[in-house]
Amino acid sequence: MGETKRFGVSISQDLLERFDEMIDERGYINRSEAIRDMIRDRLVEREWEEDDEVMGVVTLLYDHHKSQLSDKLTVLFQQSCQENPISINTTFPRVQFGRPPIIV
């Protein structure tokens, strides 16, 4: 990251109050941090809009013992994946975890 530059922004009181509420809710420590994050997000969105290819990951945790759920998910997967789909299935034993794990 390059040298930090300061700049001024003119904004209505109402919009500033709403912005301050949002940054409090999201846990930003100051306005500058929130503005930097919003600019980065918008730049990434712009890159996605301009690029022809996008890659994403969808993670599903489900109870494979539920009746026909696995078959329904397979059909949905086949209907929604357009090109080069990759599927990895992993089973997490309930005995070891007590409940399904949270994957981040």
Entry summary:
The chain is mostly helical and 104 residues long. The protein is built from 4 helices and no strands.
Shape: elongated
- Helical segment tally? 4
Specify the biggest β-sheet.
none
Identify low-pLDDT runs.
Answer: none
Order of helices and strands: HHHH
- Span between N and C termini? 27 Å
Beta fraction? under 5%
* Average of pLDDT: 79
Radius of gyration: 22 Å
* Helical residue percent band: 40-55%
The number of distinct β-strands equals 0
Structural class: mainly alpha
| Count of the separate structural domains | 2
Tell me about this structure.
The structure is a single chain. This protein is mostly helical. It folds into two domains: 13-50; 55-104, no CATH class. Helix content is 48%, strand content 0%. The chain contains four helices and no strands. It has helices at residues 13-26, 31-50, 69-80, 94-97. The protein is elongated.
